[in-house]
Amino acid sequence: MAPQVSVPSQIRQALAAQLQTAREVALLAVGSELRGDDAVALRIAELVQESREQSQRLSVFIGATAPENCTGPIRRLNPSHLLVIDAADLGAAPGSLALLQMRDLAGVTFCTHVLPLSVILEYIVRSCPDCQVVVLGVQPDRLDFAAPLTPAVEDAAQQIADMIRCALAN
User: Is the dihedral angle over the CA atoms 40, 41, 43, 44 positive or is it negative?
Assistant: First the structure.
């Protein structure tokens, strides 16, 4: 049995603090549903959308392997905050996560999309200059074709969805 993942309290607190003043949050889920743990962001988006208490301040965008296709709708929304979630090689245990700022993206390898995440985010920010961008990277375990999420990453997805719901509950 895989060890249970625990979201560090400093990440919970940092995300809550960053979203505390949010007028509107756009959640952009990036990843491939065909590549095992690369689908973690898609699973988190699904869990957040299933929530009956979904915040009125939250709009979910499924970018999948072509997050650039969501730039138009996100720009039209003009959110105060953009929360991007993607599987990322953090060099950590499966299911581990890191909150990253745009300036931190250069040193992180994201899994399956062609266009670099930094390019997509810079494009959005040029159109929404007051938008605060936060990237949540989740360490995958396996990226095998047609594989389900591994237990550690599924557990992380559940906890991250709960963390997002709590951060936007106010």
Answer: positive
pTM of the model: 0.90
Question: CA-to-CA distance for 113 and 64, rounded, in angstroms?
Answer: 8
Number of H helices, E strands in the chain: 5, 6
> What Å distances lie between residue 114 and 24, 64, 132, CA to CA?
28, 11, 24
Helix axes 151-167, 9-19, angle to 10 degrees: 40
Q: What letter would DSSP give residue 156?
A: H
Q: How far apart are CA 170 and CA 153, in angstroms?
A: 27
Q: Which helix (H) or strand (E) holds 120?
A: helix 117-127
Cα separation, 118 vs 54, whole angstroms: 28
Q: Are 37 and 86 in contact (CB under 8 A)?
A: no
Over its length of 170 residues, how does the chain's per-residue pLDDT go in tens digits?
Answer: 445 667 788 999 999 999 989 999 999 999 999 999 999 999 999 999 987 566 789 999 999 999 999 999 999 999 999 999 999 988 999 999 999 877 766 655 555 555 788 888 889 999 998 999 999 999 999 999 999 999 999 999 999 999 999 999 86
- 9-167 maps to which CATH number? 3.40.50.1450
Domain ranges (residues) in the chain: 9-167
